[in-house]
Design a protein that fits this description.
single chain; 68 residues; mainly alpha
């Protein structure tokens, strides 16, 4: 299976499709915060996604989820 590298526009589209929620997860960052900072954080998220894919490593801190 081959995964193409992500580009910044793709990440921005994903962020814009997030629901408008003010609740946060384990990282204490809400969707509203992510949406409002999307143009600033998109390059960093793109780099993180591509580096994770290239190295075959997914950060343990991002494997947590709150199930309610």
């Amino acid at each position: 299976m081959f995964l193409f590298p992500a580009n910044e526009q793709e990440i921005l589209e994903i962020i814009q499709n997030l629901e408008y929620k003010s609740s946060s997860g384990d990282d204490y960052i809400s969707n509203l915060t992510i949406k409002s900072a999307s143009t600033i954080i998109a390059p960093y998220l793109t780099g993180l996604k591509n580096k994770s894919k290239n190295q075959g490593v997914f950060p343990d801190q991002l494997k947590n989820a709150k199930v309610m």
